[in-house]
Specification:
The chain is α/β, with parallel strands linked by helices. It has twelve helices and twelve strands.
Length: 333
Amino acid sequence: MRYRTLGRSGLRVSELILGAMTFGEQGGVGAPPQECRRMLDAYVEAGGNAIDTAVNYRGGASEEILGDLLEGRRDSFVLASKYTVTRDAADPNAGGNARKNLRASLETSLRRLRTDYLDVFWVHMWDRATPIEETMRALDDAVRAGKILYVGISDAPAWVVARANTLAEWRGWSPFIGLQVPYSLVQRDAERELLPMAEALGLAVTAWSPLGGGVLSGKYTVDGDAGSTRLDRASVDERTHAVVRAVLAVAAELGATPAQVALAWVRSRSRAIFPILGARRLAQLQDNLGALTVELSDEQCGRLAAATGFELGFPGDFINQNSGWVFGAAAIP
């Protein structure tokens, strides 16, 4: 495992992040504490040092399990949690990005995780109602209090993130150093506005669901091979089937698993991208970690990307198509 700084910070993070959304069995299928311990130990053995959770994951069980597992070694990890999603559906102030919920959620996370600080505290998503100025100032207050070291934002429009960091720059507040978005071969929407914005602002990108909700994990196949589940054509569109076929073909060429190929493609897009691994079993995590040794050729990357049929749309395609019109003979290819 290699390490890179997270955005424009000095925080060194392993190139694959361990997602703890599956830690705990509350609210559906998840991993029991014993399996969580095995997964964390395997991740650490591979050189991983970054863990991603949230105040609402598994009704709080994820943070509680991590608090137990990290006891005595917490400072060796880059520990991140998130707030926004409600902690109590009956309380109108128990959710959203307002200062009140930020404070209460942060204290809840610190207590469950048995720590006095978080390395990264993420705004889980834009709530539309809270002024971004309020959120940024409240986050900066928590940084100045020493309860969080860095801040990031997940699942928000590019213009919101850009405005937030511009305000932070003008007013001397702590800026977002990272952006968290869904990104995979079957969901490339972030390429339209979010990834170019992140590159321009120097933000790290932590990619959730890099296996497309499991479709690219290898547990599904087009033809229903032994040990796999056949993709249901009634529930998965033809575009997804085309992507799966391309991933399977490249995996066969490399002697890798489909999950490893899908993760390698996400990693190949930019050094600023850190895929988040979310597994329920040790074997799944070990397979995902194998992506570190998979190198895709330019031709294979191009073939995988072509299978998605992705288009930037307006204004990206329009700008690209008309650069010659704007600059004439001086246009840069």
